[in-house]
Amino acid sequence: MYIITSIITVAIIIPIVQLARPSINLTFTPDEKYMSRYAKVEIQCGQIQPNAQSEPLQLWYVDYKTGKRTPISRTLLTAPTDDAPDVFKNLQNKRYDFVRKNHIRIRSLQMEDSARYECNCPDCEESIPKQTKDLYVMQLATPAWVIDLGGPLHENTKTTIKCQVDGFYPYVRHRILRDQQEITKDGKSDLSDSNSFPQKFVWQMTITPKADWHNSTLTCSVIQGNTEQVATETLNVLFTPNFLDCSERQFVDPRKDQSSIECSYNGNPAPQLTWLRQSDQRLVTSDAGITIETKDESKGKYRSIVTFDRNKLTSLPLPPMKNGSVENYYQYLLNNGFLVKLTVNGNEKGTRAIKIVKDARQVQSKVSSSSTTTISLATMILLAFSLLFATLHR
C-alpha cells in the first residue's frame, strides 16, 4: 500500500514541477501588431514562474537591415559606442528610456524604430526557448496612378498604367480593380526590400485600350500596416464612333397616340447624331409633334430617341408632292423613312437608313431570314468539307 501511495505522489509531483519551470515572456505595451507614429511603447523581457536558481535574462535589439543583434543596456541608450546601431546613436531627442534591466520605453515612435526584439537566457543551464517580437512603426503614404504617354489614351494604342507609392512602411498586401473587377494578377508588381524602410511599391500593366476602357475607374489599394491607402483614376480613351443598335427596320404603330424609334451609338469625343427625312434629307428636329432625346448611358455610349405625337403630326400641312397620295403629314413622314448620321467635328463617320414598318412581325421576319441564310451557308460549307474528305479517302 505504501509503494502504491508513493508512486501516485511522484506521478502528481512531477507534472507540477514541470509546470513550475521558468519560461520567457516578451511583451509590448500596448500589444499592437502595428504602432502609429508618435505613439509610445514599453518593451519588457521577463520570466514566468522564476525560481531562486533562475539566471538573468537578456533583451536584444535585432536590426532589420543588417540582422545584427545588440544587447539592450543602460549604456547602449545613454552612451552608445561607435559600433552601436544607428537608431541609438541618432537619439539626440532621447526618445528611448531605460526603465530598468530588460525594460525600455520608446516615446514618439518613428518608422526607424522598427526592429525585431528578442528575449533569451544565454547563461541558463537548461535551455529555455527564446521569444521574439517585431516592432512595426507605420509610415503612411498615398498611392498615385501614372499613365504612360499622359493625357487621354487612344484606341488600339499600347500604353502602360502604373500604380506606385513611395516612402511608406510596412507593406502588407495590395489589390487592383477595374470597375470593381479585380485585375491584380493581370499586371506585375515590385516591392523594394521588405527588410528595409521606407519601402517603395509599384504595380504596372500594359494595355491596348478599346472603347470599353473609356471611363473605366481604376482603384489601387495598398495595405500599409493596419491602414488601407487608396488611389483612383478614371481613364479617358479616344475612340472612333460606331452605331451600336440602330435597326434598319423599326416598327411604329400609326394608330397609337405616341410612338418612338431609336438608335444607340458610341464614341469619344461624343459624336453628334442627326435625324433626316429620307425623302428630301431635311433635318428632323424637336418641334411640333416630334421630340428628340439623347441619353448619356456612360462609358461613351449614347441613345437617341425620337418620339412622335400622332395628333400633332396629323394636323400639320403636307409638303408639295409630285406623285402619290397620303392622308396626312404623319403618314408621309413614316412612309418615307429616315436617315441617321454620325458626325464628329463636322466629319461624317457613319450613316443608317431606317425604314418604318407597320407590323412588328416584319422586323422579326428580317432577323429570322438573316439567321436562316447564315445557317444555310454554314450547312453548305460543312457539306462541301464532308465531300472533299470523302474524295480524299477513297
UniProtKB/TrEMBL annotation:
Gene3D superfamilies named among the record's database cross-references: Immunoglobulins
Main location group: membrane
Alphabetical keyword list: Disulfide bond, Glycoprotein, Immunoglobulin domain, Membrane, Signal, Transmembrane, Transmembrane helix
This protein's GO CC annotations: cell-cell junction; plasma membrane
Subcellular location: Membrane
Domain Ig-like: 22-136, 241-314
Signal peptide interval: 1-19
Membrane topology annotation: Single-pass type I membrane protein
Superkingdom of origin: Eukaryota
UniProt-listed GO biological process terms: cell-cell adhesion
GO molecular function annotation: cell adhesion molecule binding
Protein name: Ig-like domain-containing protein
Source taxonomy: Eukaryota, Metazoa, Spiralia, Gnathifera, Rotifera
